[in-house]
Amino acid sequence: MEIRKQKIGRFNEEDRIALAAILVRAGYTVALDKVKVDGKTEYTVKFFGDGEEPERQARK
Description:
Elements: E1 2-3, H1 13-25, E2 29-37, E3 40-48
Antiparallel strand pairs: 1-3, 2-3
């Protein structure tokens, strides 16, 4: 699963780290990532539960 900012919201580094910490304490595997959307970089929090495999992407 992936969490991104809302259209009018902000999702700064502190927010992403705090959210990641909560998810780790809840037992999830967490990855902080960035993706290109419409030519802009968006920062995301990806998390995976038991039995879920993270998507493997080739790094360029």
